[in-house]
Amino acid sequence: MDIENKKVDLVFLIDSSDSMKDEAAALSEKLNAAIEEANKACPSDLRVEFLGIEGTFANSKFDKTVRNYLTETLGVDDGLIKSRKYAAIGNPAQEDVAPAAEDIIKSYDWRAGAEKNLFVLGDESLYGGEMVLNEERIKACDDAISAALDHAVKVHTYLGTPHQTLPYPTPADERAMIKEYKRLALRTGGEHYIYTKGIADFIQVLKDTICASKVPHEDSVDEKKEEADKLEGKETPDKPDNTGPGSSGLCGQAADIVRAVNTLADVLKGLVESCGPQRAGNCTCHEKPLAKPQQTGCKCEGEPAAKKPEPAPQSDSLTQKPPVSPPPAPASQDESTQKQPDQPISPPVVPAPPQYTEIDELLAIAINENSQDGSDIYSHDPQTGKILKKVVDNNRNIGQSNALTTDGYSYYFWSNQRKAYREKDGKREEIPGLSGKKIDGMAFRKDNTGFMFTDSANQVYYYQHDPATLNMKRSDSHRLQVTPGPGESVVAFGRADSQKVTDMAFDSANRAYFIGLQGRLWVVEDTSSTTSWLTRYLFQFEQLESGAETQFTGITFDSQGYVYLCGRQINGGVSRRFIAKGRLEDKGKLTLLYKGDPGGYANITTRAFPDIAEEVLK
């Protein structure tokens, strides 16, 4: 099936009591604009229907009831309809959201092969209205969930602002109602929108819902299961991993012990090389071992880390260049004070500008938005930002993430098909074990261990790249938790835009860096654990233009330690892809390197793992 013509059925079902009149009008007014926006971001063969529960709203798209549509249009026996009939007195049937949803799920004329979606809107309980839950109302939600799972229907939920004459009795009652609307959505794979104070931006709500509606039901349910379990307090501990530091006993910690011993050996080796007999007299202060043992020279307390020079401009082609020798170590203070006044002072040694090589080549994957090259991967010059070539042609799919291995394999993910691939020398291979759930960010460590995650769930899956096999897969046994470190208040991963994490990158010390949608940057100092990582918040990158919104969706480094961010710049409703460049020591300042076609870049990657001094991260 043509992905862009994928069938999507979406039924809007609204509580027809007077308190929902504002939502009905706003949704009807914004629908056409939302569909237009959604078709740009995630085109589909969309069919929509608008039904009221035992009532309608004038001057809106909700001009027919569930009962009339099922019995008169489809010929369903009225005796099979579960939701109650309208009555002028008593608990209003117009607010029977869950039973009416069950009727639509079971009896609507869903198209063959279509993704089936139901969007329910209410401002009170899911059965009979009122602002307080009871067992009967909870069971009505359970029944709707069961029916949705049996018939593969995603239920999206919207909880609106209650009428001013009928507020929630207590804050606890409001929290319980929010939980119930979220539960109905999450357990069926749907999205949830909570607006108990104020009214939503329905263009954004509808666009997000339409795009989410394209995702296969089974994938959505699986993706949201963990969040649903947490909501209901059913969170289960991770499966034990006998290879990780969480194992009990000395044997279970053997891998960490060996790693620590090897690290200590490397440090001692570097110390001997730097300050051994052959360098007698050159280390005169309280020295610290260097970050990389193979370097020479002594680092004294209080000595600032030298900034790396900006590489000189070069030609568009990135070719292998010979390594540049490092500048000589600065003379110690004792040596400099021993110089005689009449001795000529040598001019300062100016280090040769470092040269970029093919490992610094920037590869960015396009999002299919306002453009015709969705999921294509472009190569950019790290010095000028200029496009060098199209590396991968992905036939107008929807790009989500990409990463490079040290041996040149390009891994990438199509969000519209939920499929993962890798490619080298023009040969594309699907990786079934990594396909399924969406992947917002992915990266490889220098040992070619791959990591992937979704933006709001603090779970990172890992696997090992092997060019000889496609049997990599994500599983609970290869999953770790990401949590804030001690004393950290800025949390990575969550449903709020301020918490969403979109990509990651590694340096030569195997530190992981997470970039957030709004430009927040976190670091994980130690990624050796296979069960848990601790984040530390560093800073937030600046917005690129005043009066515009910058969404950061990708991060990578070059071999000189410069950081590159990509994403989309939104101004006046129009988005354009960008690449920006900066240095971690500048704490969020960026230079716009490339501003290009409409749409956005979803991820960016290189094969570089730079040395980043610890002082830079303080």
TrEMBL record:
It comes from the Bacteria. Gene3D superfamilies: TolB, C-terminal domain, von Willebrand factor, type A domain. Residues 216-241, 300-310 have a biased composition (Basic and acidic residues). InterPro entries: 6-blade_b-propeller_TolB-like, vWFA_dom_sf. Residues 216-250, 286-354 are annotated as: Disordered. Residues 344-354 have a biased composition (Pro residues). This is VWFA domain-containing protein. The lineage of its organism: Bacteria, Pseudomonadati, Pseudomonadota, Gammaproteobacteria, Pseudomonadales.
